[in-house]
Write a structure and sequence with these properties.
heterodimer, A: 292 residues, mainly alpha, MetI-like fold, B: MetI-like fold, 17 helices, 75% helix, globular
């Protein structure tokens, strides 16, 4: 808290006003609606609705389609986070060491941050297009009977590759900043004590980067859960046969295309609880930033 | 700048035998970085090159790795003509809409969060703490988990297919407010004390001292928010049905649908051209303002 503050006046209310108004209308009201609708069941014709307590939640959790989607989402998030973090860490460590062309490498590695997920999805999808896509032909020529329109594994592979491609840049930026934050004296001392580059990395650098890595893990899981919606929507659309149907994509298809309001809302609330878990984790580990 | 780059070079020259010993590592560093750069840049390069060829060439020979001769024709058609992959609209209209969304999102978010953070940090008022928690709550409610009811709210307010409906629901989240709150807290208290001695009121202090002081912070956040706004996808596809309001990122979805419909020879080169047009503005902003962009990203995400 500031020592010096202004006293009582109506001015602070005017200043928080706009943000509060928007939050109430566009956040709290819809969120309340989502929770309320998740307890309602509409009949097939939309004529009557009943209050059904947790029935929508039960139906959601016990539904095999939802379970498969949840399983895919977890696996997808784990793989996307792992690979985009690992590739970015490798590149950042190397970029931090080189002297020549360091800025050129940096520029070439960070720009992809600015690419929207659906744009990445469309480019990636065209690379795998059965008619013109070189990667499609390359994989088939190499003996992998690749067909992402029919095979769930192939489709997942494609979506994961595109999602990792899009996410490497942001991880790279944070790792490079983390590496540059390690004091020169620590690096010097480590270099004197330990000749092996590899051992020095695992015993000194990697532990010092742990806060960055943890923070990035949260960012990446959130990305894999939510922002990959754009990639999936212009590549597999959750297919083939629901093989790449993430939970967010399912909320969207059930709510907008399937018009199953209760079920979609219950799924939203479950997702919300997952995000809540993630955010709590995030703030526990970087709470030095929040002092309330 | 030049002097500081000189030092490692000179140190390396002084330790010549040592440099020879580590050259294997240096070589590996460059090899890995080049591979990484190729992994990231190749798709963009191929997309750009393929956009300069005709649909027939792409269909016959696959993706292209060097310039073709129909670049002007393709980009001209995508930019100014309806039909093709842009259907009833043009890339020019979509770029305009994206610009409105990117700028509106960035400016709206900065104004709203600067003022809210000012109230929370600099005033003693009864509802400060509950207000802070309400703002904090928005972090927990990403748009994706409340899309259906958000759509209903915007529809009932008659804001579908309007810039207001497109931008306003996106700008309220708390990240910007936290960022400015953190920054204001680091501003020395003496400034306010001095300003008050000189007779400055709350408005005066905000406009004449705090806002100018925040300039670099605002620039950094602006870059990030512009890119984030430009790249919005889920909300725009839900609430715009009028194709005159399509942003270029929604245009990407439309391209996908046109290509999926099949029919006659798909205009792949136009699809590639549209992706290049969608990527170019935010990438240029990021590269041109690289330093501010990185500062903004590191500060705002934490």
């Amino acid at each position: 808290m500031k020592r010096a503050q202004f006293g009582h006046s109506p001015i602070p209310y005017l200043f928080v006003g706009p943000q509060l108004a928007i939050i109430v209308v566009f956040f709290l009201w819809p969120a309340g609606q989502a929770v309320y609708q998740s307890f309602l069941l509409q009949d097939a014709f939309g004529l009557s609705t009943r209050f059904v307590w947790f029935r929508n939640y039960e139906d959601t959790i016990l539904n095999t389609v939802w379970l498969e989607s949840a399983g895919f989402t977890l696996l997808f998030s784990a793989l996307v986070s792992f690979f985009s973090i690992a590739v970015a860490l490798l590149l950042a460590v190397r970029a931090n060491e080189v002297i020549h062309a360091a800025n050129a490498y940096k520029t070439l590695l960070i720009w992809a941050y600015a690419v929207a997920p659906p744009v990445a999805g469309l480019i990636g999808g065209l690379m795998f297009n059965p008619f013109i896509g070189d990667l499609y032909h390359l994989f088939n020529a190499a003996g992998w009977d690749f067909n992402h329109t029919r095979d769930g594994f192939d489709a997942s592979f494609m979506v994961i590759l595109i999602a990792v491609w899009k996410q490497v840049s942001i991880n790279f930026i944070f790792f490079l900043a983390g590496l540059q934050g390690i004091p020169a004296s620590v690096q010097e001392a480590a270099r004197l004590d330990c000749r092996s580059d590899e051992r020095r990395f695992w015993t000194i650098t990697f532990p010092l980067l742990a806060p960055t890595s943890f923070f990035l893990l949260v960012i990446n899981v959130t990305y894999a859960f939510f922002e990959t919606f754009g990639i999936i929507d212009v590549t597999t659309r959750g297919g083939p046969g629901g093989a790449t149907n993430t939970l967010v994509y399912k909320v969207y298809t059930d709510g907008f295309l399937g018009a199953d309001l209760g079920g979609s809302s219950a799924q939203s609330v479950i997702l919300l609880l997952m995000v809540l878990g993630l955010t709590v984790l995030q703030f526990r580990f970087i709470e030095r930033k929040v002092h309330y | 700048m030049a002097a500081s780059e000189d030092i490692p070079a000179r140190a390396a020259a002084a330790a010549r035998p040592r440099r020879l010993r580590i050259s294997g590592r240096t070589l590996a560093n460059h090899a890995i970085l080049i591979l990484g750069a190729v992994f990231l840049c190749a798709p963009l390069w191929i997309a750009f090159m393929s956009s300069t060829h005709s649909a027939e060439t792409l269909y016959r020979e696959g993706l292209q790795f060097w310039f073709g001769d129909s670049m002007l024709e393709t980009y001209g058609a995508v930019m100014f003509d309806t039909g093709g992959v842009t259907k009833n609209t043009t890339a020019l209209t979509m770029l305009g809409n994206s610009m409105v969304l990117g700028l509106g999102f960035a400016i709206g978010k900065i104004v709203i969060s600067m003022t809210a953070a000012y109230a929370i940090v600099y005033f003693r008022f009864r509802l400060a703490t509950p207000f802070f928690w309400v703002i904090f709550l928005t972090l927990l409610l990403p748009l994706e988990v409340r899309i259906v009811p958000s759509y209903e709210v915007v529809a009932s307010l008659g804001l579908l297919n309007s810039y207001t409906g497109l931008i306003v629901p996106l700008i309220a989240s708390a990240t910007g407010t936290f960022f400015f709150r953190q920054f204001y807290k680091s501003v020395p208290d003496e400034l306010l004390e001095a300003a008050r001695l000189d007779g400055a009121g709350p408005l005066r202090f905000f406009l004449d001292i705090l806002v100018p002081l925040s300039r670099t912070m605002v620039a950094a956040i602006f870059i990030i928010m512009f890119v984030v706004g430009w790249n919005q996808y889920l909300w725009p596809i839900i609430m715009t049905t009028d194709d005159q309001l399509y942003t270029i990122v929604i245009g990407i979805k439309q391209v996908y649908q046109v290509l999926a419909e099949g029919g006659e020879l798909p205009q792949y080169q136009e699809a590639f051209a549209l992706t290049i047009l969608a990527i170019l503005p935010p990438v240029l902003v990021v590269l041109f303002f690289q330093r501010w962009f990185i500062k903004g990203l590191l500060e705002s995400e934490k």
